[in-house]
Amino acid sequence: MVTSEPQTSIIRRHPTGAIPTAASEPQTTYIEPPPPPQGAETGYIPRPRPVEIPPAVTGLDPRGAIAAAVLSILSGWATAVIATDLITGWWHTDRLFCVAIGFLTAISAAATIGGLVTLLLRRRMGRLLIVVGCVIGLLIFASLFVAAAKFPAIVYAIPVLPLAAIAVTALPSTGRWVRSD
Fold this sequence. Notes:
Blueprint: H1 63-90, H2 95-120, H3 125-147, H4 160-169, H5 172-179
Helix pairs in contact: 1-2, 1-3, 1-4, 1-5, 2-3, 3-4
C-alpha cells in the first residue's frame, strides 16, 4: 500500500500555478518618492549652482619651495649612492646590516619622492614627508659611523644636504607657498 506524504505549505516540489504578485498585498503609504523640483528632469540630481572662484593669491615667492625640491632631490640621490656603496661593501660580511640599510633607503626614497610630488602640488603633507625622508637619510649616514666605513672626506660632509633640505622645507615662506592654493 502506497501512502502519500502529508502536504506542507513550506516546501513546494513543483509549481502549483502562477507566481503570486505583490498586487495582492496591501501597499504602504509611508514611503513616497519626493516630487521632482520644478524644471528638473529628475528629482535625484540637483542642479549645479554657480560658484565664484576666488582670485589667485599674488606676491608669494616660490623660491623656498623650489630650493626645498632641489635639495630634497640631491639629498635623496646622495642617500641612495651612500646606501648602495654600503651594501656592496658589506654584503659578504654582514647581510643583516645591508638588508636594514636597503630597507631604510627604500623608506627614505618613498617619503622623499612622495613629499617632493605633494610639495609641488602645494599639499601640506609634502613638507612633512620631505622631513621624514631626510631624517631617515641622516640615519643612513649615521650608519657610516656605526660601520666604521672608510670613505673620502667629502662623503662625511654629505649630511649637510638633508639638513639643508629640512631647514629650507621648514621655512615659513615654504609653508605660505604651500597654503596659498
